[in-house]
Write a structure and sequence with these properties.
Layout: H1 15-23, H2 28-40, H3 42-60, H4 68-82, E1 89-91, H5 92-103, H6 109-118, E2 121-123, E3 150-152, H7 161-164, H8 176-185, E4 196-202, E5 205-213, E6 218-224, E7 237-244
Helix pairs in contact: 1-3, 1-6, 3-6
Organism: Lentzea albidocapillata
Protein name: Anti-sigma-M factor RsmA
Keywords: Membrane, Transmembrane, Transmembrane helix
Length: about 250
């Protein structure tokens, strides 16, 4: 619905429209005219009562911990956006209002109500776009740099997070498979692409530091010796520590 913001005709009304009304995402003038009509209709008012009951059930649920892989993606997105500027955080309702203004009223009102009950917010990256679902993810590439690797001591690894986070420079390890093998040798399991990886100089020794997810706001820093690490070589792990919020 765009332009004149006319009140949808009914009954009947779609469940999505009733859910939008329930979630408070319709324009105020439309909602003011539509609500009494919906409440006067037996079938539509039953949908409203069901949505009320759903919200009550959601409110009564215990807190749900965020999965590590979701926390890792949020950390990576925030880190990437922090470089050119700070990503604004907006509520799901506000994001949906913007979408409605662009695309017209659509479905998903029930999901909005459920998400609102959990207090979910979205990090909106300026100008960011999601890649099409059927596009293959780009293969990791090594970022060549003329600058020498970061020179670090063992007790300074945490200071390099800002530099390494988001980098995908495998250096002498060359490939993700080699990284996986070296992590396996140290008994370290990790799925997918690391949050950051880059060659470093660890107390005078050529090494590679990988940043792995360790929960929201926390990172596992693993330093590998490319000359000795491998699937069966635990000695190739030079350092393994976790930094961030406790």
């Amino acid at each position: 619905m765009t332009g004149m913001e006319r009140v949808p005709m009914g009954p009947p009304w779609s469940v999505d429209l009733i859910a939008d009304l329930h979630a408070g995402v319709l324009p105020p003038e439309v909602a003011a005219q539509l609500r009494p009509r919906v409440e006067a209709d037996a079938e539509a008012s039953e949908v409203l009562r069901a949505l009320d009951a759903t919200l009550e059930d959601l409110h009564s649920l215990p807190p749900v911990p965020m999965p590590d892989h979701v926390a890792a993606r949020i950390n990576a997105a925030l880190a990437a956006e922090a470089r050119p500027g700070i990503a604004p955080v907006v509520s799901l309702n506000e994001a949906r209002k913007r979408r409605n203004r662009r695309l017209g009223m659509g479905g998903g009102g029930v999901l909005v109500a459920a998400a609102a009950a959990f207090g979910i917010v979205l990090a909106v990256s300026p100008g960011a776009q999601q890649p099409p679902a059927n596009d293959a993810a780009p293969a990791p590439t090594s970022k060549q740099s003329e600058a020498p690797p970061l020179a670090l001591k063992r007790d300074e690894l945490g200071s390099a997070v800002g530099e390494v986070l988001g980098a995908q420079n495998y250096g002498p390890l060359e490939t993700p498979d080699r990284l996986t093998g070296c992590l396996k040798g140290g008994g370290i399991t990790s799925s997918g692409t690391p949050l950051g990886i880059s060659p470093i100089d660890l107390e005078g020794k050529s090494a590679v530091m990988a940043i792995l997810p360790a929960g929201l706001g926390k990172y596992r820093l693993v330093v590998l010796d490319p000359a000795t690490c491998g699937p069966d070589r635990q000695e190739g792990v030079l350092a393994d520590t976790t930094v961030g919020q406790r």
